[in-house]
Amino acid sequence: MDKVAVVLYSGGVDSTTCLAIARAEGYKPYAISFSYGQRHQAELLVARKNAKLFGASEHLVVEFDLRKIGGSALTSSIEVPKNGVGNDIPVTYVPARNTIFLSFALGWAEVLGAFDIFIGVNALDYSGYPDCRPEYITAYEQMANLATKTAAEGRGRYTIHTPLIHLTKGEIIRKGIGLGVDYARTHSCYDPTPGGAACGLCDSCRLRLKGFAEAGIEDPVRYTVRSGV
Asked: How far apart (Å, rounded) are the C-alpha atoms in residues 123 and 223?
């Protein structure tokens, strides 16, 4: 019987690599994406188009609107920073986003009878978001095993898999290439053009370009500017 796993899949480099890793580890992946009121749909369009091409058995898109809360450059009219970020948590942080995403994934996993959830968080080459840290994932996993009927009845324990958490962006890309990931079918930019070209200047673009440079591979997606990193 196939091992079933729910994989958080945004259409970006990390989540796509995470999906490939889940498959390589023998899981039957069920991909989950979110339309949450983000400032553009480019990444979600990529996710819708490519989830099954990347091996997802099913692709679920959950819709809700975090614009009603705001507080982030990704869910409000706050400008996306284009000149790099400092040491503070940047305005592209979306309040409680990974907690919300993981909760939907946990609910779907319980319905599917799955006890494994994959999320592509990273604590090295990242923007400093607090919900990407190992201690956060450990705490969430503990909560998942207290909050669910299946765990309370002793039918299994939930594991939150974070295979990228201690890798550099370059290491992530090299690992994905080794697993056959086509990164031309991914999107990472926070503020793309209407035609879908990446800006090259936001923090997500900078981290992505840094990773491809470290991996010695040219990033195959379109940019309006290929910034120095």
From this structure: 25
For the chain, the domains span: 3-186
Query: pLDDT digit string (tens) for 150-205?
Result: 999 999 999 999 999 999 999 999 999 999 999 999 999 999 999 999 999 999 99
* Cα distance between residue 96 and residue 103, in whole Å: 11
Token pair in block for residue 177:
């290439």
Strands (E), 153-215: 159-161
* 122-161: pLDDT as tens digits: 988 777 899 999 999 999 999 999 999 999 999 999 999 9
Q: Looking at the domain that runs over 3-186, which CATH code has it been given?
A: 3.40.50.620
Note whether 44 and 21 are within 8 A (CB): no
- Rounded to two decimals, the pTM is 0.95
Tokens of residue 130, six digits? 């607090």
Q: Report whether 123 contacts 133 (CB < 8 A).
A: yes
CB count, 10 Å around CB of 59? 19
